[in-house]
Amino acid sequence: MDNKSIAPSWQIFSSSTLKMIAVITMFIDHFGYTVVYWSDGQGQYYQLCRDIGRIAFPIYCFLLVEGFFYTRSRLRYTVNLLIFGILSEIPFNLALGAAVRLPGYQNVFFTLSCGLLAIWGMEKIREKHILLMVLPAAAGMAAAYLLHTDYDFKGVLLIVILYLFREQPVPRFFCGALCLYWEWKAIFAWIPITLYNGKRGWMSGPVLKYLFYVFYPAHLLLLAYLRYHFFRI
């Protein structure tokens, strides 16, 4: 991601920084959902955790689109998402549904996979007929909707918007905000996104890269354990 032109001095966040912001806010969100809820109900602490957590998903979608353009292998990128989607499914079910099976709700890796496949198809078709780009976009949204993935078709739509307006920050913001109107606090994710400088940052090695993949199922298992330990649920 270091091939961009020199960013303005006020753009101070690398992709590593954005990943850390997304990880921390996601953890707070899930902590509120899995632990705080059982002590506070839907009170102020629960709501605060969920509000902070709205920042995470748009950042992950933004980084997915950036990764799409800079990855050495789009196929490997897609396969990694699908593999960790499968590995994360039971931890996701245990944390969010207190059950091994949760057929009506699939984890966010599958949303990201649908989005990645959608923009990959759009990129292929773009060279032939730009109007036909709607087909892979619609297919990705339909797949997320039918699979009942986290954020379902709306998540894929956000990825498509970030792809289409990648070089146009103002339309990207307004279209992205409209896409997330039902979770308006997610707009605050555009603050760190706007501060992105196009650089990888300090987490560029393969071990650290996969650490972010592993963190998702690991933190879900931890939260499921904490909820069971304190509330026997």
Structural summary, described in words:
The structure is a single chain. By secondary structure, the chain is mainly α. It has one domain. It has 10 helices and no strands. Helix 4 packs parallel to helix 10 and helix 6 runs antiparallel to helix 7. The radius of gyration is 18 Å and the shape is globular.
How far apart are the termini? Answer: 43 Å
Helix and strand pattern: HHHHHHHHHH
Q: In total, how many domains does the architecture comprise?
A: 1
State the shape.
globular
**Whole-number average pLDDT?**
92
Report the biggest beta sheet as strand number plus sense, adding barrel if it closes. none
What Rg is obtained from the alpha carbons, in whole angstroms?
18 Å
Structural class: mainly alpha
